[in-house]
Amino acid sequence: xxxxxxxxxxxxxxxxxxxxxxxxxxxxxxxxxxxxxxxxxxxxxxxxxxxxxxxxxxxxxxxxxxxxxxxxxxxxxxxxxxxxxxxxxxxxxxxxxxxxxxxxxxxxxxxxxxxxxxxxxxxxxxxxxxxxxxxxxxxxxxxxxxxxxxxxxxxxxxxxxxxxxxxxxxxxxx
Length: 174
Fold this sequence. Notes:
Layout: H1 29-42, H2 57-87, H3 98-152
């Protein structure tokens, strides 16, 4: 077992002391400048900005990966046919290796599965939005009917303007 190292020696804390005061009590302007520059250097950096959450982000990454894999497998198949034609062995080896064909099939199946997942999530989001829209429209209709009902019912009986005819003052010029 290796020997234990010595504990690091810590400096006395100057957090409770006013700026510019030395541990011994002396105050100098160069010490104040030095403390301020050290304080700036020892400040913690701001926290990293939060990563924006994207709608269907993981699905889009899976689509990208499976499409890239499919393109890679397709390129390998094309390279096989080009090499076979160049070497003149197209009649002896008419088909690419099964492993490449299976890899292409797997990546296309994965792409199809992710597309189905995206479709399902979009349909769910559409149904939720339609439900919320109907609820909001019902709330707006209820508010409109309530405001109409409060406007038509007044606490005093309505008086017709013709029932309370008040003569206008004479405004003829003198």
